[in-house]
Write a structure and sequence with these properties.
Strand order of the largest sheet: 9-13-12-10-11
Structural class: alpha+beta
Strand content: 15-25%
Radius of gyration: 38 Å
Largest sheet: 5 strands, antiparallel
Shape: elongated
Oligomer: single chain
Helix content: 25-40%
Distance between the termini: 126 Å
Order of helices and strands: HHEEHEEHHEEHEEEHHEEHEEH
Number of helices: 10
Length: 361
């Protein structure tokens, strides 16, 4: 009897062990992998709900900057050229909104803003166009608007592109780099409706532009437009349009040497700016002869081409007073500028600051 009893107990214990193992293997709480490693052993590990080995999450590399970060010049991903760097360091933080910085991969940047722009969209577009003009047609992207970085790092790189719309017929709305107020003026009496026989528009790469006109030749109108554009910023300008035809080279944007010659340099009739060719050939050509005869001579100019040449037999100060008084009397009261001294005897004394300081308060 004892032998039969022991056999029954052993059979029951064996049955419970098998059932227990089956319950464990079928549990949803924990499943084992059946993959095999190179050494032939089971590479057991947790499976997902579908019975698969879960994939490891890919580690994300932190970005150098993110949209909404506070702007720092040190976060710009390119080595800036010295001019762009100083412009941003010296000016950007103090500018009123709206303002923006556009950057190209060659390290050139355009940054500006303030009351001359009416919206963030306007200043962004202008900075992208100025950046493209400045870099010689390189792709640019907005890096910062206001005091915040605009894009995540990867989005910034993908945003590099071209903003200028090439055109062959003059359209004030497509003059690149300038603000909307300038475009409005060019669309009206300042250029589009001007009735001179010849006219031209010149632009630079910092938003500077101006017009020139002539009743004699296109060359004179173009020369005066470039000179008047250059005094705005003391940087080179190119002709953008002559009459209603756009002549600007959008493909290879290069900037010609500056036409304006600042003092102190020797007087040269052929380099007197802003005036007509007939004035150069007439009254201004007489100056060397007058000085040679012992007279004191002062030439006063206005950026719109008004002028007066003061002459005195002995007194240079008297000649200067005569020149400035009569030049200013010939300028319309609506002008934003006064006349300034261009030359004394045979010495050009005009500087860029001379022109800037002639602007009325």
């Amino acid at each position: 009897m004892k032998s039969i009893y022991r056999a029954i107990v052993l059979a029951l214990l064996l049955t419970f062990s098998v059932l227990g193992y089956q319950n464990c293997s079928e549990s949803d709480a924990f499943k084992l992998s059946s993959k095999t490693t190179n050494d032939g052993t089971d590479n057991q590990g947790p499976l997902d709900d579908n019975g698969n080995v879960p994939e490891e999450e890919e580690q994300q590399t932190p970005k150098a900057f993110y949209a909404g970060d506070a702007f720092s010049i040190n976060k710009i991903p390119y080595t800036l050229d010295s001019g762009s760097y100083q412009n941003i360091v010296d000016n950007y933080a103090g500018l009123a909104n709206p303002k923006a910085i556009a950057v190209a991969a060659n390290g050139m940047a355009s940054a500006w803003g303030g009351a001359s722009f009416s919206s963030q969209a306007e200043v962004n577009q202008a900075m992208l166009e100025r950046c493209q003009l400045k870099t010689g047609n390189q792709a640019c992207a907005i890096f910062a608007e206001g005091d915040l970085i605009k894009y995540d790092e990867d989005v910034f790189y993908n945003s590099l592109g071209y903003s200028i719309q090439p055109t062959t017929t003059f359209d004030a709305s497509k003059v690149p780099g300038v603000n909307n107020n300038t475009k409005t003026n060019l669309a009206g009496n300042n250029y589009a409706n001007r009735t001179n026989a010849f006219k031209a528009v010149a632009i630079g790469y910092v938003g500077n532009s101006n017009v020139g006109w002539s009743e004699v030749s296109q060359a004179e109108a173009t020369r005066r437009a470039i000179e008047r554009c250059e005094y705005v910023s003391d940087l080179p300008c190119n002709v953008f349009a002559e009459g209603n035809t756009v002549v600007f080279d959008f493909t290879t944007i290069t900037w010609s040497p500056r036409l304006l010659t600042y003092g102190p340099v020797a007087y040269d009739t052929l380099k007197v700016p802003f005036v007509r060719e007939q004035d150069r050939d007439g009254n201004f050509a007489d100056i060397p002869g007058r000085v040679g005869n012992g007279q004191r001579v002062v030439a006063a100019l206005h950026v719109a081409g008004y002028y007066f040449i003061g002459v005195d037999d002995n007194n240079l100060a008297a000649a200067e007073d005569t020149a400035l008084t009569n030049c200013n009397n010939s300028v319309p009261a609506t002008s934003s500028y006064n006349c300034f001294v261009y030359s004394r005897d045979l010495n050009v004394v005009m500087t860029h600051d001379t022109i800037v300081n002639s602007r009325k308060p």
